[in-house]
Amino acid sequence: xxxxxxxxxxxxxxxxxxxxxxxxxxxxxxxxxxxxxxxxxxxxxxxxxxxxxxxxxxxxxxxxxxxxxxxxxxxxxxxxxxxxxxxxxxxxxxxxxxxxxxxxxxxxxxxxxxxxxxxxxxxxxxxxxxxxxxxxxxxxxxxxxxxxxxxxxxxxxxxxxxxxxxxxxxxxxxxxxxxxxxxxxxxxxxxxxxxxxxxxxxxxxxxxxxxxxxxxxxxxxxxxxxxxxxxxxxxxxxxxxxxxxxxxxxxxxxxxxxxxxxxxxxxxxxxxxxxxxxxxxxxxxxxxxxxx
Length: 292
Ligand SMILES: NC(=O)c1ccc[n+]([C@@H]2O[C@H](COP(=O)([O-])OP(=O)(O)OC[C@H]3O[C@@H](n4cnc5c(N)ncnc54)[C@H](OP(=O)(O)O)[C@@H]3O)[C@@H](O)[C@H]2O)c1
Hints:
- This protein has 10 helices and 13 strands.
- The chain is an alpha/beta fold.
- The protein has a single domain, classed as Rossmann fold, CATH 3.40.50.
- The strands form 4 sheets. Strands 3-2-1-4-5-7-11 form a 7-stranded parallel beta sheet, sandwiched between helices.
- Helix 1 packs across helix 5 and helix 6 packs parallel to helix 10.
- The radius of gyration is 19 Å and the shape is globular.
- The N terminus is likely disordered.
- The site of NADP nicotinamide-adenine-dinucleotide phosphate (NAP) has 23 residues, from helix 1, strand 5 and strand 8.
């Protein structure tokens, strides 16, 4: 990680809004570079570096927390009305602050179904699910805000503590096969390190407002599950055909199977030169296996 630290350091103050899975990984990593990091949660906490922010109850951090903030990362999804919680509650505070850069974690769901074809940032979004329409509207609101935002579109996020291994261990795994169906994914470490790489090299790299962060190898869920069972030394149950399994799936789980796309990372990895830590699910899941 030594190449990351020269221009990001103690002079920078990061505010991480929504410190869930990706946000807390980012916070933990950026602290190692000496940055001052404040995070938000919806629950009260004794941690002096954590503030309470909950758009649903209008619990909004005091302006003083924005003093000296140079970078903000928003990891908060749209609210139930489809509004962006951060813009809804904190837009003027951000506009009056000294923030230089805002990262917004979005989803590749905005591309909709490409019938298994590759999709990149230059393709028009074509959301299919209602939640993806809401997400695209939030992206548009961020761009319209005039704030210095950069949007990162993410496929399925996994990492130690949140991967197929947990589903197998908790007996929640559904082994389903659907012909020609693939999913794209990204290890949580690559979200953090890609963003840090872009910040670190911002003076030499062209700025792109929307960037996909995905690994090199979209593939079937079955391949991933089989690989995990192999690592655990267990026998995988016989797959069920999607058609036979779908009525037992929750609406949200069903909706994931309705879209089939391969998300391109060429902008990030070829044009901008980021080197993935976990290029494919095998490398990433081995890390999860060893660190969960
Ligand atoms: N998970 C995936 O596979 C995936 C894939 C693509 C994109 N994404 C998107 O990428 C972003 C990060 O994903 P993640 O999985 O790391 O998220 P996560 O673990 O679910 O964390 C979301 C965070 O948002 C906070 N939050 C939610 N609603 C809020 C509200 N109304 N007001 C204030 N805070 C609120 C939560 O607060 P608490 O800490 O209090 O719970 C939590 O810290 C999210 O926008 C997610 O939708 C996720």
